[in-house]
């Protein structure tokens, strides 16, 4: 991609840097930052110490780069420009305008689909585990299972997570609550000839108990939690115990007793 870029004439090199950046392979997760946002110094506070060749990099990103630099320096500035764009991107995508641009990309499925079978191809959102650069690469968040995944392509997998930040995906669902999918308790249960495998059954039981405790606490705080299953089996949702597997008849003693050798559940 750099080759294509360098083969252009000098004037093209300085012209449409953002267009080039957005359309380059591997940069599909990024949205285009508005010119007005980039040229407002307030939005760039603190980045001058974070990015080498800051002013040149900014000129390149804002399409006013005009420097007769040798290839080495140009490459350095190009690298800085990408870093600067990423850092500004993390700030931009939590603004009203940035959120709506990322929402369009989310709806188009630009970030891929959740690989988990039970999520039925739910669309993903890019996110960082850190807000500081060079700590971790970008991950993909599924709002349905509320878990995170590595990007499939190595081009995406090498992008710095700080270019998206650790709050963006949560802010998106706060601003557009209708997009937050209904949560489901549906999960895969390993079975051998129809019988639940012991350790996973014990873990599932513990998770179910933990979940119902949490729901109780939330209800105490006046927050209502509904799972998809509450709608599907309306008659049974009154009694939590009835939702559990009928094979679970031995109760909790199993956890500390026969199961303890196989699995420590911390009880
Ligand atoms: Zn998922």
UniProtKB/TrEMBL annotation:
The keyword Kinase applies. Residues 235-267 are annotated as: Disordered. One of its GO terms (biological process) is regulation of transcription by RNA polymerase III. Keywords: Kinase, Transferase. InterPro entries: Casein_kin_II_reg-sub_N (IPR016149), Casein_kinase_II_beta-like (IPR035991), Casein_kinase_II_reg-sub (IPR000704). One of its GO terms (molecular function) is kinase activity. GO terms for cellular component: cytoplasm; protein kinase CK2 complex; UTP-C complex. PANTHER family: CASEIN KINASE II SUBUNIT BETA (PTHR11740). Tetramer composed of two alpha chains, one beta chain and one beta' chain. Regulatory subunit of casein kinase II/CK2. As part of the kinase complex regulates the basal catalytic activity of the alpha subunit a constitutively active serine/threonine-protein kinase that phosphorylates a large number of substrates containing acidic residues C-terminal to the phosphorylated serine or threonine. This is Casein kinase II subunit beta. It comes from Aspergillus ruber (strain CBS 135680). The lineage of its organism: Eukaryota, Fungi, Dikarya, Ascomycota, Pezizomycotina.
């Amino acid at each position: 991609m750099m080759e294509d870029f360098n083969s252009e004439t000098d004037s093209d090199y300085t012209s449409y840097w953002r267009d080039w950046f957005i359309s380059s392979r591997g940069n599909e997760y990024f949205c285009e930052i508005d010119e007005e946002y980039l040229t407002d110094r307030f939005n760039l506070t603190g980045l001058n110490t974070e990015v080498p060749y800051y002013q040149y990099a900014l000129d390149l990103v804002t399409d006013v780069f005009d420097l007769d630099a040798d290839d080495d320096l140009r490459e350095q500035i190009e690298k800085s420009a990408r870093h600067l764009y990423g850092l500004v991107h993390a700030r931009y995508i939590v603004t009203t305008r940035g959120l709506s641009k990322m929402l369009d990309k989310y709806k188009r499925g630009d970030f891929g689909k959740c690989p988990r079978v039970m999520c039925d191809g739910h669309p993903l959102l890019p996110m960082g585990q850190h807000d500081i650069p060079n700590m971790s690469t970008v991950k993909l968040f599924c709002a349905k299972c509320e878990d995170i995944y590595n990007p499939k392509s190595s081009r995406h997998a090498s992008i710095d997570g700080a270019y998206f930040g650790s709050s963006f995906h949560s802010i998106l669902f706060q601003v557009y609550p209708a997009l937050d999918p209904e949560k489901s308790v549906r999960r895969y249960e390993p079975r051998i000839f129809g019988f639940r495998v012991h350790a996973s059954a014990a873990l599932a039981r513990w998770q179910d108990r933990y979940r119902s405790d949490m729901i109780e606490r939330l209800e105490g705080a006046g927050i209502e939690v509904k799972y998809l299953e509450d709608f599907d089996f309306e008659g049974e949702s009154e009694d939590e115990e009835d939702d559990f597997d009928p094979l679970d008849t031995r109760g909790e003693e199993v956890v500390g007793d026969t199961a303890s050798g196989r699995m420590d559940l911390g009880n």
